Amino acid sequence: MNEISRAKRIVIKIGTSTLTYETGRINIRRFELLCKVLSDIKNSGREIILVSSGAVGVGVAKLGLECRPKDIPGKQAAAAVGQCELMYLYDKLFLEKSHKVAQLLLTRDVFEREVRKKNARNTFERLLTLGAIPIVNENDTVSTEELEFGDNDTLSAMVGVLTKADALIILSDIDGLYDSDPNKNPDAKLIPYIEKIDEQIEAIAGGSASGLGTGGMTTKIQAAKIATSHGMTMAIVNGSDPNLLYDLLDGKQAGSLFLPQKA
């Protein structure tokens, strides 16, 4: 049995590449399956907090842009359009399974100012008490820096700390952490368990595999350092098959598991 199998409150981060095709448009089949699996997990009695990327990528496609904007106002505009589409789909698909959703758009100052942090924590707690699924994203439309959190990987870890979650699961476009870049080395081996994030682990972290997202393994390792140092177990699994969440929560080996650091 792994540590995540005992988790009651779980933060799940969904990357852009999990939700969309290379065109930036929604992968409807995967999106629907993901919401179905998460609804079933919630029905089992676990609390789910979703940190969802994808707003900029979806907005780019919906606006008919040829590529992701390089200027901040362009990205903010794309995010504003894409966020509407994402929440519409989440609301529709979760409601079909009798679950309510709530949108929370956060900026870094929420975590840096004690009053705002307390207000955010209270909102999360009340939403979970009311049975809603909080869906979190960075507030891209007002952020003045391109990567205020260093991608939603870091944001998801910070949300986990804020809400005192038991575990963090990052759904990515890769099976987990490999001992070398699997795109370049066909003999690369998956590392199933990471007990400590040392210099060697940090050294093998690579860049983003998708042109639509902003993160890569480096930001996932950073998220793992935050999560595990606060007593959370973190897993990286391939988001192309949402059913892997069942394996993970049933205590089976799936992806890469980062074990919490003991005090």
Structure characterization notes:
- Helix 3 packs across helix 4 and helix 7 runs parallel beside helix 9.
- Strands 3-4-2-1-5-7-8-6 form an eight-stranded mixed sheet, sandwiched between helices.
- The chain starts with 8 loop residues before the first strand and ends in a 5-residue tail after the last strand.
- Helix content is 41%, strand content 16%.
- It is of the alpha/beta class.
Order of helices and strands: EHHEHHEHHEHEEHHEHE
Largest sheet: 8 strands, mixed
Number of strands: 8
What spatial order of strands do you see in the largest sheet?
Answer: 3-4-2-1-5-7-8-6
Helicity range: 40-55%
Q: Give the low-confidence spans.
A: 207-215
Q: What labels would you give this structure?
A:
about 40% helix, 10 helices, about 260 residues, globular, eight-stranded mixed β-sheet, alpha/beta
Describe the SSE topology.
Elements: E1 9-14, H1 16-19, H2 28-43, E2 47-52, H3 55-62, H4 72-95, E3 101-106, H5 109-112, H6 114-129, E4 133-138, H7 152-162, E5 167-172, E6 193-194, H8 199-203, H9 217-229, E7 233-238, H10 244-249, E8 256-258
Parallel strand pairs: 1-2, 1-5, 2-4, 3-4, 5-7, 6-8
Antiparallel strand pairs: 7-8
Helix pairs in contact: 3-4, 7-9
Question: Can you summarize this structure?
Answer:
The protein is of the alpha/beta class and 263 residues long.
